[in-house]
Every structure is written in C-alpha cells, then in structure tokens.
Amino acid sequence: MLLYTYIKLIKKWAEKRKLFDYATPLSQALKTKEEAEELVEAIRKGNLNEIKDGIGDVFVTLIVLCSILKLRLEDCIAYAYNQIKDRKGKIINGQFVKEEENES
C-alpha cells in the first residue's frame, strides 16, 4: 500500500475515535513524546518488532497532530528538508550536530 493510503486510513481511524473533537495540539504532541520514548526503549532492547511498532506509532501521532493543526505531513517534511539540505556539521556521539551548535 502507498504511504498516502495509510495517511488517509489513519485520519479515518482518528476521526472515528473523535480525536479531532477532543485532542489538542499539546495533548497530541505529548502522545508523540510518549510513543517516541517507547521507541527509544525498544531500540535499547534491540527488539525489531517493537521498533517497527514504535516508528509506526510515532508516525500515527504525527499524522493526527498535523490534522489537528490543519497541516499536511508532506508540507512539514518538505519544510524540514529545506531547512537541513545545505546544513553543515559533524557527527558527535553518533548524532549530526550542525555547525552553529559546535561553535562556542
């Protein structure tokens, strides 16, 4: 199935559960944080099925958050990419750190 199809299915799922009626941007962002923390724990355990579930759960929460805010995930991704595409930096402790964060 195409990613766009899953996005539509997730929106329908959220609509049936009245998330768009009751969830706020903050409550949904906190749900995203919770799911991201579960993903980190799955990675620590090295459990591939839990990692896949965690990535999927984070994705679901972001789709719902975008819908609450009347944003399209594709636009958010494009915006983020345009912010990072020319960024320079280096890897520190396994993470990319942009140049201006390195300079002190």
Order of helices and strands: HHHHHEEH
Q: State the oligomer.
A: single chain
Q: Major sheet, described briefly?
A: 2 strands, antiparallel
Fraction of residues in helices? over 70%
Q: Strand fraction band?
A: 5-15%
Q: What is the approximate shape?
A: globular
Q: Give the rounded overall mean pLDDT.
A: 94
In DSSP terms, counting alpha (H) and pi (I) runs of 4 or more, how many helices? 6
Poorly predicted runs are none
- Return Rg in Å: 16 Å
Distance between the termini: 47 Å
Overall description:
The chain is built from six helices and two strands; from the N terminus they run αααααββα. With 104 residues, the protein is mostly helical. The chain has a two-stranded antiparallel ribbon with strand order 1-2. A hairpin with a 2-residue loop joins strand 1 (89-92) and strand 2 (95-98). The longest helix has 21 residues, at 25-45.
Short recap of the structure:
Helices cover 73% and strands 8% of the residues.
What's the SSE blueprint?
Blueprint: H1 3-16, H2 19-22, H3 25-45, H4 48-68, H5 73-84, E1 89-92, E2 95-98, H6 99-102
Antiparallel strand pairs: 1-2
Helix pairs in contact: 1-4, 3-4
Keywords:
two-stranded antiparallel sheet, 2 strands, globular, 104 residues, mainly alpha
